[in-house]
Every structure is written in structure tokens, then in C-alpha cells.
Fold each of these.
Amino acid sequence: MSNSFGQIFRISTWGESHGGGVGVVIDGCPPQIPLSEEEIQIDLDRRRPGQSEIVTPRKESDSCEILSGVFEGKTLGTPIAILVRNKDQRPSSYNEMKDKYRPSHADYTYDAKYGTRAWHGGGRASARETIGRVAAAVVAKKVLAQLYPGIEILSWVQSVKDIEAQVDGQTVTSAMIESNIVRTGDPEAVGPMTDLIKMMRSEGNSVGGVVECIVRNAPAGLGNPVFGKLEATLAQAMMSLPATKGFEIGSGFGGTQLTGAEHNDPFYMDGDTVRTTSNRSGGVQGGISNGENISFKVAFKPTATIMTEQQTVSSQKEDTELKGRGRHDPCVLPRAVPIVEAMTALTLCDHALLHAAQCGSSQAS
Amino acid sequence: MSNSFGQIFRISTWGESHGGGVGVVIDGCPPQIPLSEEEIQIDLDRRRPGQSEIVTPRKESDSCEILSGVFEGKTLGTPIAILVRNKDQRPSSYNEMKDKYRPSHADYTYDAKYGTRAWHGGGRASARETIGRVAAAVVAKKVLAQLYPGIEILSWVQSVKDIEAQVDGQTVTSAMIESNIVRTGDPEAVGPMTDLIKMMRSEGNSVGGVVECIVRNAPAGLGNPVFGKLEATLAQAMMSLPATKGFEIGSGFGGTQLTGAEHNDPFYMDGDTVRTTSNRSGGVQGGISNGENISFKVAFKPTATIMTEQQTVSSQKEDTELKGRGRHDPCVLPRAVPIVEAMTALTLCDHALLHAAQCGSSQAS
Amino acid sequence: MSNSFGQIFRISTWGESHGGGVGVVIDGCPPQIPLSEEEIQIDLDRRRPGQSEIVTPRKESDSCEILSGVFEGKTLGTPIAILVRNKDQRPSSYNEMKDKYRPSHADYTYDAKYGTRAWHGGGRASARETIGRVAAAVVAKKVLAQLYPGIEILSWVQSVKDIEAQVDGQTVTSAMIESNIVRTGDPEAVGPMTDLIKMMRSEGNSVGGVVECIVRNAPAGLGNPVFGKLEATLAQAMMSLPATKGFEIGSGFGGTQLTGAEHNDPFYMDGDTVRTTSNRSGGVQGGISNGENISFKVAFKPTATIMTEQQTVSSQKEDTELKGRGRHDPCVLPRAVPIVEAMTALTLCDHALLHAAQCGSSQAS
Amino acid sequence: MSNSFGQIFRISTWGESHGGGVGVVIDGCPPQIPLSEEEIQIDLDRRRPGQSEIVTPRKESDSCEILSGVFEGKTLGTPIAILVRNKDQRPSSYNEMKDKYRPSHADYTYDAKYGTRAWHGGGRASARETIGRVAAAVVAKKVLAQLYPGIEILSWVQSVKDIEAQVDGQTVTSAMIESNIVRTGDPEAVGPMTDLIKMMRSEGNSVGGVVECIVRNAPAGLGNPVFGKLEATLAQAMMSLPATKGFEIGSGFGGTQLTGAEHNDPFYMDGDTVRTTSNRSGGVQGGISNGENISFKVAFKPTATIMTEQQTVSSQKEDTELKGRGRHDPCVLPRAVPIVEAMTALTLCDHALLHAAQCGSSQAS
């Protein structure tokens, strides 16, 4: 079950970076949702390698095939299987990794757990695994749009190392974010961020940063206390992504610097709607959305693969050294943006269907 | 399933702050584990109200009763049901809350979701809900101790507002932490933290902070990629606790300020053991523990209940004001320490049994 | 998870026949459902021992207490915990069973699996475990009634050993079934069945039979292919009951004696409703209800506890003999009737909420 | 989750009879298990159409491709995705079914539930769906063989309509069963059964029967009371198969004709092993295997597709008539044999890993 996510709208991803391909099975999708491979491809293209000069040059078209669950252009309510073949595989690039653990990668821990690993590539720990999530999230977004017209999920690069973007979550648009290869929401930050990433790559080094995500026009009522609190599920979703080290909702760690009197979000009536004058809660109170923007941040560490010599050990348990090879992102942030959006959509879609199941009939009355 | 946690060692908690009581059912516990109510009581006492001058004065002995699953002092392998009665209930303190939503509490969102709420107290959103978790975790810790002798889970208050403790995670002991009512690991910080909390209470205000947790002598191999990555489950576990706003593992958000060359943890051999010279990974790589200390932080917001007048709305959807009443913690951190430990134990125990299930036989060979 | 049933409306039962009590936690129940202990007690009384001269004389009032999840007489949407204390315990009756395995009981297998067992009584394998199911099913029936007014679940004793009742599933009523202590739907069979059970008891012997169940006014559309087919979930539900050995839906094993031309259920229009002229499908086609009566049978073996000397082995693994003692039902069928109804209600309720989750919005359009 | 089965060794199947193909994802498989496409193909060939003159002539090679989870011939511990393409599709054969519901098929119920269906073929309700189960079961059998050397799962056709085979479950072999196209274990029954099936086909009619299954050299201790009782999981597994109408374990419905004194299985010591002199329990007591042969029967109804005119209704809800077309099995029993074995293997494998998780460490001590 470790490779499944969601209780009603449930995805199961599979696949290694090298091998037959990667994919996903979606179970529990509502029927009669229009769905095409072209729609899925749009988000896969936002995630795929080789899309710009600041990401890995691995050449993968990441073309998807819907194998089941869709008939005459609409979902059947049965499992939707989606397949993306691996194409541009270069296992030989990994020959040295066969016997040496790359620092801060999953090589050693997979060996420690399973006694084996797919060494010619990142295997299951590769970010290629997220293809299935992105594909499934296209479906999730369509379900959400049907349930909650106007709901909008937007992520952007909030910082690269110490370069911080100035973004207004209330007004930033998808067009603004997609207009630059860094996928930040601040036009002023594009240049410095791009330059820093390029410099890192030229040095064989890497860099991390923070992705921010906002959900606008979210309904009140999503989230299932106590272990399925909305922020708990979002935290699990985000921390399940490769390279993530932290998650904050609303005021986050910074909120610990305020007193209760400063931190509380006062309620007020905006016409018939209950609103809060501030949003340090991040749109979630007691694990349930309150109708304000859902707002959170995710920390991504600098890419573990660097091109300089590093101290490590061999699988024969001897000290040795290793220099990174292969094609890698000097900064995962630009490609992480659609992935964070995807996990957000999957989380909300499942919570929306759970909410309909438990509270749908009582609210109708 | 929202009130259940874990796949093998699975707990289901229930109960509101006012009403018959709170409790937990543990399913999937290994048989033949010695277990007594007295052992469970020890941790419940660390969590209970009224234990010191800086926590809520609500008088609850929180005495537990084991209703099933234990026979002649040992677990049977069948579900263990544990009950704690609510005693010191004062629903009248909440009369005003019946019609007014307390800011940054769950009052409004529960109403929005369920169309009802247990208004005479915090209901299910009360921190009393965590009693079941703490009780179950006593069992989890015994299972872990049997599987991994020497494993040690320690939490402490790392900061209260802007007062930061200086704690060495490698050497801090349970005795040091339990020796002071704040439950910090830094003797120098006890005084300032205590003073701040008392001042906040006297002002009718509140304060938050950060709890840090370390797991020492953890085995390599725990965690189940991809959605069950160890840090993903820990993040879900911690963000399911009341008042949490952030989670960081290892380098966390601070790690985004480093380059890959600075951030990577070099491997080296320490006798027969693979070790890392630094631990920015926080003991987890690719979602699986690597044998180093598992190390993470959790941000707790300032308590939402404050004793000053606040702007809010009524359940009749009119603007109004509300002043906090009732007995509350001016700072949840001291009582959060055993709860963070509890969720860590529950997470690790379940992962340990999952690991035994999937990889136990292959490792034996 | 072995002690939980259902995906949305999820129950977790706990408890041994001797010890603190037995109970259930219901998670995922819709909010705002009126619920009282008195309502639950009605079905518990139909299940409890000592209710008539043909069942076990163990004196248990089986009084239930709702510990959580209900406020001001209505469900909150939070977990509902229900407790029934064990009262009339006579562990001394079981002294001999401490060291000897009762034939066709669970004594040996529990020891083989867990290395321990609650020997002073049937432990977890006791039919007392079903109390939690019956209590939870009262809630499930209320949810079903709200979703599908007119839906009716009726079980009765169809046969005791070779005495077969003549019952018309279309017209039999609850009043007819409850009017006799055997709980059969055929007035002619009451006498012979009662006499047989009494004779068996006087001989220290026991007897089994078949319970039939029908669901009238069930909606079309319930059931989730493929592993959650309605008949698959019903089969699991029924075979999870103590003493069950077989499950049939519709034509069952007898249906294998027909050809396809004889077995198929022709469709016809009954006004606006699609109906079938026969119902060998038992109301389910392709795992989904078709709107006809859902109809199935469950085989219960003769009670394993008999009062005559039997060959067995000791826990020290030596051949020995054992004579049954304690208070037991010479025939479980009369008390099995409410339990079969309970599991049917739990199964349908969960499927109804699953159906609302997946297909609710598409049908609304 | 409706298309997933198992808690640890968890399979998720997908696919319709017409479309891209069918397949399965296996999560939770132990690592380092040798696995090849050739091994999987062996059982797929036992299941595939066109294998003999008494099954459907649809021409499908059912060649499988392992897409992930296997590296250098061994399992990785990561999800194993297996794909079988649909080849010999003839959607035009189904043109009439587009608007007419085939009696006793899933056409109407899928429409009633989902508001749509894959009408050019049986869609998800087709027996092609079982391909994924059979493929996954090959892996499950390898895991079982590693955990319990000598364990043997054997199914055979016990009856076709009123022709009953005489088979000794203790001595029947796979070779005997596979030696005839009916897959019965009784050489005397082969001729009559074959003749009956051929006659039915020539008449455009169909026939059903009973498959029996035995597990030899099963360990004691498998099964997880109460909802995960071994017989409950087996019942769910079998009743999730297309065309099944009944399930019996051990004495089954026939056992209700015995008294307790006749029905109980006396224990005796066979060397160091606890055995029973009879096996009316079917190898399971209290939901846990007792080390005797696990023995059960499954009723399969006559194939719903027949070639004679039948009364039905259209999707426009008008009375009409329909005559079966397409390529179908006049009797599903011969091909059901490997499928029953497959579901048995999947059930036991999951229970074996669950048992290792919960009881593995306590038994080691």
C-alpha cells in the first residue's frame, strides 16, 4: 500500500527510472468525466526533462497512453491505467554507481532495506516516479473542477537558495508562473534565479529552494480529523516527493514567533460568508478547510547529484570516492512546481469525495 | 478511517473533551508483550493537565482502563481497547461558545463540515483526543524495544517563541528533559521559558514554539517508498496533532540555503557500519532510515484560546465579539513533548512491522 | 485492520468473552443522525443470551453505553464508541479448557498463531464479539433508511438440521419472525424446530442450520467491482461470523444444476423500472445490485460445545479427553438472525456511502 | 480500493475486455524473488481463451510484459507492473448490445451505477479482468513456496451440472488435473463432462458447476480474526470472481445436516503434530488455519451468454429481445480452475505476510 495514495480517489504508481516505463492506476474515479491523453500530456510536459536550459537534458517525450478506464472519451468509473515508456535510458552512465553509494541518494538505504536495488539509474527513488502522480492529478483536477467550479491550485518557486521571490498569492496567475523557465511568480526574481542555477550547473554544484502553493476558491469543510486532517494529508503528500525536507502551512515555523493575540485570525461576515481578516491558519482550522486560501510551503534540498569528487563507501563496505555523472537537474525547483500542484490536487480530490461520502446526504437535507 | 493510523499496528482513537471519555483501540499488536495499566499511566501522566503551574489547571487524573486484548499481563494479539473517562467537565464554561466561533479554533470548520459540533468543550478537536495516542504509544514503544533493543525516542522543547534552547541531540537524556516543567533539554533555557509562559498567562495571552525529536539507535531500512516514506509518515503524524503548523526533517527549510556540495552527507565506514560524517538528511534517505539519528522539528502555534476580547462571528452569522474562558494552556509545548514522542513511536512501530512483513524473510536468508 | 470492516462507514470491534467488556468504534458515520442507547439496546436484546429457553442461560443484560460521537441525541460525524461490559463471567467453568483444546473450537489455532489465548472463555473467538457488530449496525440501518427510505433487511431461520421452513421472502415480516423464539418465518416449522433444539440440548448435543436473508427495496447500483463486488463483501461479512461454513447468493450451489437458458433472469419494464421476471441472480449482477431483492443464505455448523466426552489433545501436546462444560447454545441459529441482519446492514451502508462518493456527483447532473 | 486485494501483498488490477489491455500492479512483494515473464506465462496459458475445443475460440496469446519491479531477474521490493495487451478484439460483434442489456450480465447494473459502460465487450465485468489476478498469483505462489516449502494449491472441476467427479483431495495431482481439457481430477468424469459441454455449445446453451480447491501442507496460524478470518477472505476472493454464486468451506451447507457430536473434528497427536481425525472444519478453526488441508468449493453459474433469443429491455427502457453473439465459453469451469488457484494463492500470501508482521517476532523468541 506504500505506493498508493488516497482512500476513495486512490492512485497506485509504479516504475523505475530505467526499465519498461512508469505509470499509475487510478481507482475510484467518478464516471463520465471527459478525459484525453492530450490533456494529460499538457502537465506531463510541464514536468518532463529537457524542457529548458536549466533542467536535466535527458530526452524523454514522456508520451502517455491511457490503457483502460476511458471509453468514448469519458471515464467509466473503472480503474484508469496510464503508461509512459522510458526511452532515453543510459544505464552505462551508472556503471560506477553499481558498486558505490551516491551520498544523500537512496542507493544505500534501498540496499539496506531490500538487499538489492536497480542501480542503473535512480530506480524507484528517481523523480521519474512522479510522472504517474502528475498524470493522475490531471484527472483529479477535472473532478475537483466539477465539484467546485472556480477552484484553482497554483504553485511557484518562492526561493532558490537565498533569492526570495516577492509574490502576492491573491493575484499571481498561472500565466505569470509559466512565462519563465524558473516558474517563479516574481518577474524580478527570474533573472537572478536563472543565473544562480546556471552558475551552479557550471560549477558541477546544485541548489535547492522553496515552492509555495495556494489553493484559491477552496470550499470550507474538506479534511477529516484527526489523522486525515487536511494539513496532515498535505504534509504526507509533499514529504513523499523526492528531495523534500520541510512543510509549513499558514504561518508555519514563523508563526511560533507570534503571541496568540497576534496569531489568531479574527472572523468577520463578508455578506453571507464567514471570512477571516488574516490567514495565519493557512486556510485550515482543526484539520478542516475554512474557505480561505489554502496556503503552504515545501522545502526542497539541493540536488544530491553533483559533479565533484565526494567521499563515500562501496557496496562491499569499503571507503572510496565518487564523482557524479549522468544527466541531472542542478535545481529541481522548476520541475517541482507541477508536481506540488499535482499532489495538492490528488489530496483535495480524495478529501472532496470523502466529504461527499460522509456529509453529502446530511448537507442535502 | 480518518481516526485510524498505521497499517499493521493500527490505532483508532475516539472521544470528545466532554462526554463519556476518550480512548483508543489498537489492532495488530504482536502477542505476548507484557503490558499493564501502570505502564500506560506513566506517559498519560506526562501528558495530563494540571501537572505543573504552567499548564492548564483542568483536574483530570486520566486514569486508564485496559478493556481487552491483555490476559494475565500480556497482550493476546487481539485488539487492545483502552478507556480514559472524562471527569472534570465544566460545560457551563462554554455557554458563550455555543453561539460564537472562537477564532483560530475548529468551531467554525466543524460546523461547516458536519453541520453540528460538540460546543461544550473543544469536542473532537480538543487535545484530549491525544490521550489515546499516548496510551497506544506505550505499547508501540514496547514492541519497538523488543525488535530493536536500544532504540530511544526523545523529544524536548527546542524553542518557546524567540527563546531558543541549546541542546545536543547526541547526549541529551530523558532525565534532563523531565527534570524541568518546560521539558526543554537546556538547563539555561528553563528559567527564561518558564518566565515567558507565566507572563503570557498573566496577560491572558499565549505563546508557541518548536519541539525537536530525535530517534537514537534506529535501524536502517525503515520506511516504505513512495507514499509511505518515513519522513512522509512522520510529517502526517506530526501535522495531525492539534496546533501544529510545520514539520522539518534534517536540514529542513534551512537546508535550502546550502549548495549540494555543502549539503550532501558523505558516507564512511565505521567498523562494519555504513555511517555519514554529517546528518543533514535527518537519518532518512529516499524515504528509508539510514541508521543515523532520525531528527526532526515540529512547529506549534500559540494557543488559540486567549483571555482578551476578539472579533468573531456567531453561528447565526452575525459579527460579534468573544472573550476566552475556561481552563487552557498558555503554551502547549510542555505537554506536546510526550505527544510528539508518542506519534514517533507509533510511526516507527508500524514501519517496523511492515518491514518485517515485506523484507523479513529475504533478510533471514 | 483485521478487526475493522468497511471503507467509509468503518467499524472496529474489540473485546473478549471474559474481561472488561466488548465494544465497537464506528468511524465515518454521517453527522446529524438521531441516535440513542435505547435504540441500540433493542437489537442487542435480540442477540443477547438468556432471551429464551432454547439459547444459552448466560445472564448478560448487554447494556450499552455510548461513549463518544453523539451529542444532544445526534451523531457528530466523529467516532462513535460503544461499550458493553461483561457481567456474568464464570471463568472457573473453563478451568479444564486451560490445558485442553476443545474440538472444532478456536483454542488450538489461537495458540498456534499467537502462542497464547484467553482460555477462561472463548476469548476473541466467542460470539460475544458480535455485540459490537450488532450495535454498529443499528447506526448503519439508520443511515440506510435516510438514504433509501423503504429499504428493509430481514433474516430468518430457514432450516434447523433437516427441518426446512417454507417462507415467502416477498411477504415475510419482521413481526412473523420475531413472534417465535426460533426466529423462523414459517409458523408450521416453529414447533418441530423448537422440539429438535430442546432434544439436542437434553442430549448434550447440538445442531446447526441455515439462515436466509433478504433485502427488499434495495436500490440498483450498490457494489464496487471487482474485489468489492456486493456478493464478495457480503460473503466476507457472513463468513466472518462464528460457526459459518457456507454462503450462497441467489441460485447458489443449486444454480449449477440449471442450464444458462434456464438460469438467466429475463429483463422487462415494470413502468419506468427495469425488472427481472425471475431472480436467480439474487439481486446482484456483475457485483452490483440490480434493484431486485438481494437474497442469500448462510450455513451455520452445529455448535462445537457439546456435553459428551470427546477425544482431544492438551496444550502439552498429549492425547486426552474432554467433556464440554459452561453455558452454551445448543443451536446458534435463533441468535444468529439479528447478527446476519447486522452484517448485511453494515455491508450495504458502506457500499451506499462508497457509491455516493464515487457516483454521487455524476448522477446529480 | 475496490480493484485492490490484500493488505501487505496488495494487487490492483485494471483493464476492460476491449481497449489497451489488462494488467496488474503488485505492491508489497518481498525483494529478491526470482521472477520471469516465462513463469507468469505458464499460468496465463492455463487461463487463456482458445486453449481447447470446449472453451471460447477468442484468439488471445495473452503475452505478458513485466514493466517494473524486477531487475536482473529478481524482484526489487518495488511495485511490479504487468501488462497484457488485448489483441483479438471484435467490437462489431457487440453492436446490438450497445442498446440492449444482456440478461444476467452486468450491462444493466453498470449503466445503473455509472451511467455509462464499455458496451463493445464485457468491459470491466469480462473474465479478461482475471488475467491480472493470475499473473500476480504466480508471484504469490513463489513467495509462499519460500515461506512454506511444500505448500501446494490444487483446484479441479468437481462437477459440471449434475455430473459429479470422484476425487480424493489427498492424492489428486496437478498432472492428473492438467491431463484433460475439463480440468477435473476424475478420469472417469472427463468424457461425460466434455460431452455435456459440447452438447450445450451445439445447442447455443451453457452450463455451470463446482470447482473444488485444496491446499496441502498449509501451516497452522494463517488468518486474522475477526473480519480477516481465513474463510472470510477466501469467500471474498472467490465471490469476487465472475459467475460465482456460492462458497463453502469444509462441511459447508451439508454440515448443517449433522449434529455437533457428528460434526466436531477430534484432535489427536501425530508425533509432535496436533492433527484432527476428520476435517469437517476444512482446515480452518476460528478463522485460523489448523494445519490440516484447507478445503473449499465454489459454485459457478451457467454462462450468461447463450445463443438463443431472450427477453430483455433496451437502454432506452423498452421491452425487446436479444440473441447472444460473440465468442464465449459454453462452460467457464475449465478456465476457472487456474483462477480459483490464483485467488487462493493471493489470499494465503497476504495472510502469510500479515502473520509474519504480527507474530513473527514473538514466535522467534
Amino acid sequence: MLTGGPDAAMCPARGVLEHVTSRWGVLVLGVLLRGTHRFSEVRRAIGGVSEKMLAQTLQTLERDGFVRREAHPVIPPHVDYSLTGLGEEAARRVWALAQWTDEKIPEVMAAREAYDAAKSARA
Amino acid sequence: MLTGGPDAAMCPARGVLEHVTSRWGVLVLGVLLRGTHRFSEVRRAIGGVSEKMLAQTLQTLERDGFVRREAHPVIPPHVDYSLTGLGEEAARRVWALAQWTDEKIPEVMAAREAYDAAKSARA
């Protein structure tokens, strides 16, 4: 379980949740949900991610069993990335949460304005 | 939108997603999903969180409009925390993802073992 004990925040599920909701993890899952991509295609689709960070993100998701990496020994060689069955499930869930968050931004922004106004009124 | 441009990872939804999926954010939402709690009750229910980190997490979630803070000017004074309507929606979604992750831990662990074994076989 995720709550209930002093070690709750350190449980293995915590690490996996971090991998799939990380800044680049969410975006990689979103791109691969649209189909198989080569490394350079993932990078272009996301934008703003360094080669090193993307390689690290893909490797973490591959090790967790969410991403499948397929190297083609052709000339020039290339590597395809796609979602496993487990990865597709994860991607759909994470992406639904991300889109919900995106839709609620106006409400969140209004709440922040109200909060800041109340705070400066008290100050 | 969350993907598609160079600023994708910097959009406002990113920040909100981080607040609700943060180590303590997830656990706070989970506790408040069970009902209104005082600060000390939230802290006890989570376990392992410092007073400062919990106060910061609650404040961030309050400012985003997910958590309602109600101070009771009685003796001794106490403060109640509960979810707003928006917060309850967020909590249900985040919690469903966290629980899914928790259920899939055996599969993730098996994937990691296979990955590490393949890697050391290549080395």
C-alpha cells in the first residue's frame, strides 16, 4: 500500500510512479502512444529534451518494462521504440491524468489568484 | 497541449501535475480522500514527513485549489484540511494511478530482472 506506514513514501511503487510522471516520462509515453518511433523522432516530437536526458528516460522506462527497444542492424543502423502492453496501460492512465490537469488549468489559475489576493490582503 | 512544441515541458499543466504526483502530494491527497483531517492527523497518517515538508505540500495544494484550509479560532486553536471538489477529482485520478502502479510492481520487478540479466550477459 502507498499510505499507512513510515516507509510508505519509500515503497517501490513510488519509484515507478516517479518514472511515469516525470517531466520527460509523461511526454515519452505520450509520443509512443501514437506508435513506434525512432530515437530522433521521439526527440523531435517532444522538443527541448537533451539527447542524454531522453536516452536516460527511455532506458528507465525500458528497464521497468514499459518501453520496448528494438535495434535494427541495417546500414545505417537504427533503433525503434514502442510501448509494451504494460507501457500502453501506463501511458493511457498517465496521459488521461495529464490531460485532465491541462483542462483544469483555468480553475487552478483562478484559485491561485484568489489565494494570493487573500494572502496580500492579510499582509 | 502537453506535447508538440519546444515549451511543452514548461507549460502550466506540468507544474500542477508535479504538485499532485509529488512524493508527499500523492499521499496527502490519499489521506484527505478519506475525509477532513487536522494537520497532526495528516502527518500521523502519512508517516515519515517533516512538519515543514507537510506544511509546504498542503500550502501548494491549497493554492492550486485542491485543498481547503479551515482555521478554527477556539482554544486550543486547530486547523482542518479537506479536499475541494476539484481536489477530490484530482485525488481520485492520482490515487487510481498510484494504485495501478502498486498492483503492477511484480511485473515491473520481473522486467527489471530480465533487463539487468540481459545487460550483464552482454557485458
